[in-house]
Amino acid sequence: MKKLLVLSLILISFxxxxxxxxxxxxxxxxxxxxxxxxxxxxxxxxxxVEKFTYNPPFHFSLEGVSYQHQxxxxxxxxxxxxxxxxxxxxxxxxxxxKWVVDSVLIDxxxxxxxxxxxxxxxxxxxxxxxxxxxxxxxxxxxxxxxxVQVKNPRWAESNQTIPFGVIQFSTDQLYYxxxxxxxxxxxxxxxxxxxxxxxxxxEWRHAEVSGQAEQFDHGWSLINVTINKLSLxxxxxxxxxxxxxxxxxxxxxxxxxxDILNSHFEFETFxxxxxxxxxxxxxxxxxxxxxxxxxxxxxxxxxxNAESMSYSDQWLISPIAKLQFQPNKLTISEFDSDxxxxxxxxxxxxxxxxxxxxxxxxxxxxxxxxxAKSLSILSAYxxxxxxxxxxxLDIARSQIIQIEHAPFWQISGANISGRNLELKRNNxxxxxxxxxxxxxxxxxxxxxxxxxxxxNSNADNGSWxxxxxxxxxxxxxxEASGFRELNSLSQPWQLIAHGDGLPLKLLNKIVPLPIDLDxxxxxxxxxxxxxxxxxxxxxxxTGTLKTSVREGVLMFTSTPTNPDNGAKNQTLIQPFTVxxxxxxxxxxxxxxxxxxxxxxxxxxxxxxxxxxVKPTLGNIGLxxxxxxxxxxxxxxxxxxxxxHQCP
Length: 647
What we know:
There is one protein chain. The relative contact order is 0.04. A hairpin with a 6-residue loop joins β2 (59-70) and β3 (77-95). By secondary structure, the chain is mostly beta strands. α1 crosses α2. Helix content is 11%, strand content 64%. The chain has a 38-stranded mixed β-sheet that branches. The N and C termini lie far apart (107 Å).
């Protein structure tokens, strides 16, 4: 403590005149008076001793020592009082032009500041300094009941607070930057470099902390550190706390081994309850690379379990994990947790841009709240990955419900099985490799409900085959098959589909139309083209679509041209049917053959064409005549004109 403050001056002063008088006066009742007389003669009354005792052959005891001194940059005199001080000289008290003291014991000292005295090491060698019941109060530190022992103390610089040496330190309570550390114990070999903390323990914020540490060229490494019952939250003002403790934290560069037990954390995006974690071989200050420190570790290890954990409101119940970190590689040897009322298990390898899972298993998941947020987190992660593979995928009896915004949709009783799946390559999503089977007991989109849907698909080196997609509906079905060559630059594709009883109102959810349509659709689709990019698709789309509509209903609300005359909005509801509507596409040029629309008391026609390369020049028109009203609908531009012909 900065040359042990004024103690250094007291010690060297007494050594000078003790030796001169000890053998003459120390064993008489004049010992105390003689000591104070010498202080008056040689130290200008700066030191006063209430009682001086000599215990042969080398032990001196001083009681009630008062030292008068002037603080740096201050005019007034200060007095430091030491209730008791014991000095044991060496058997050879003067060696190599220095006085040699084996031990100094100071009891009951209380200081208000930690300031240096003068360079006493030129004249004195002390093998051990001990302070008992030491109190100190400074700008940064307040401590009560301190006991400290320093073997072979040495100060290398004038502004050095803590001496080099083997230090044993204990105190009932120490405040640093306003934070209380209770029952603090430290056993330290402090050296200019390669220091060692043999053991340290304390209580901080009701948490029990203990461990060891070693100093290396890069900083301090924590060894066998245990933190028990730590509780931190965003209310603890961690940025301010980090700033206050940065002189200590910034010196810690490595964690050899750290155990966190029975601890709680609550921050804005992360929470953990009853967390047990083991951390090994973690570098805290890595290179200046742009990548996260997570991806710069060398054989780091993390394992944890908790009562519960959450990230961005995604809760894990009873999670267990074992992770190993290497440069640009994270190995998940085990992850097991209750999640979304079900269970989630996985293992594999992650990098900043790749996900390679050995297996992913989930059962009984129910994503029914904050669905959009959860899916956006998954989508954001997936979009950051250039490659995604899963050797074994098994999802059973799971459910997703989205009712946060229209159109509502849900999938229940979902089962997914996959083997050797490659779902993303070179930042392109698709089934590049593997076998995939999917089924669902029920699914719905808006008012459309399906049951027992299934999908079978496989791929080999980018040749993606949709063997069968089958969706039974309330009054029909939809079935499709096809392929897509992902490994080709042009990515040729084909889609063949059949359907009956398809709800026409889905068209309003997919395409913005100026009219509402309902009914049941029958269709046959055979199409192919290229999908390497948008231009390829627009120049290559070819195929035919044959469709019919039964039990159709057209709904349109017209606004009067002159509402000031008292005219009101009129709603047209017209049943209709369409038979054999043909849509043909030839290298991106799409035409709809002129087809009659039949209905009660109405006639109509639909026809048009569009070039996908220049869609704004296209026209798809729907005309309807009913009694005194004629409607002309431009389905591409979304405009409707209404003409009332009756008087």
